[in-house]
Amino acid sequence: MSLLEIRDLTVTYGSGASAVPAVRGVDLTLRAGQKLGVAGESGCGKSTMALALLRLLPASARLTGEILLDGEDVLTMKWGRLRAVRWAGASIVFQGAMHSLNAVHRIGDQIAEPLLVHGKVTPTAARGRVGELLEQVGLPAARAAAYPHELSGGQRQRVMIAMALACDPRLIVADEPTTALDVMIQAQILRLIERLVADDDISLLMISHDLAVLADTCDRLAVMYAGRVVEEGPAREVYDAAEHPYGRALSSAFPRIGDPASRRAPRGLPGDPPDPADLPGGCAFHPRCPVAVEVCGEQDQELREAGAGRHAACVHVGSGS
Hints:
- The structure is a single chain.
- It contains 11 helices and 12 strands.
- The chain is an alpha/beta fold.
- The chain has a single domain, classed as 3-Layer(aba) Sandwich (Rossmann fold), CATH 3.40.50.300.
- The strands form 2 sheets. An 8-stranded mixed β-sheet has the order 6-7-8-3-9-10-12-11, with helices on both faces. It has a 4-stranded antiparallel β-sheet with strand order 2-1-4-5, with helices on one face.
- Strand 11 (304-305) and strand 12 form a beta hairpin.
- Helix 4 crosses helix 5, helix 5 crosses helix 6 (153-165) and helix 6 (153-165) runs parallel beside helix 7 (183-199).
- It is globular.
- The model has no long low-confidence stretch (mean pLDDT 91).
- Its main location: membrane.
């Protein structure tokens, strides 16, 4: 059963000749209880897509397509229904906890706010629930009295996760949940997220630039480039043997355990992503692609089948190249 269906989602900033496409015709499906990762370099549109799921983009953004959450289109919801869905149906762990938390309010009050607004509980019950949530994410209940600056980066990220869990959502969108954390704390946060979504049967959509993290955490993986999904399939298969040249480049950018050669010379990818306001013709990746052929600069490629449950938008898929 599909909990979330994204159909031909396009997000454009501005209008007319100055219009800039940030997301271009994205189609993704997330089943109930599934974990879907979305990867790509900075500027590929993954965070814009995540914010679009709950209509959290500025008024200057124009959204077209469909975002079906439990069969309801988020893009056409009335304000009252959308407000309820943002907490009880789906919630988001924003990138950068220090900038997302209010510096002048205690964290307990910030976690309690959605409970009081949406849960219709008494202040006493909300305080009790805050303590439970903090302990659920590995913090003592007494930390409810702390201000954000009194917590470490990992502790603030745990607070953000507690806020996301407050109203028992069916879907959590985690946008770069381990940004700016050291490796040990990253691992703790990832294991925490995995445990919580498994224990509460929550679906997860996780955004990251790190394919290794997503392959280790998620069931399926989508790779985005220049606002489009260029590859999608089982997470470990995409990480180990990507079909699209961009997916292979992302995967090779990180050293692998047990592979000394990858530690000495991770390959990565030369050049920079294209300017969304001035995309190259044909496949947007072709100026950086090591296997581009003439048709790549003339014609964009749609996702095509690349094996059981796998799709990639590349002319070489199925050609043996």
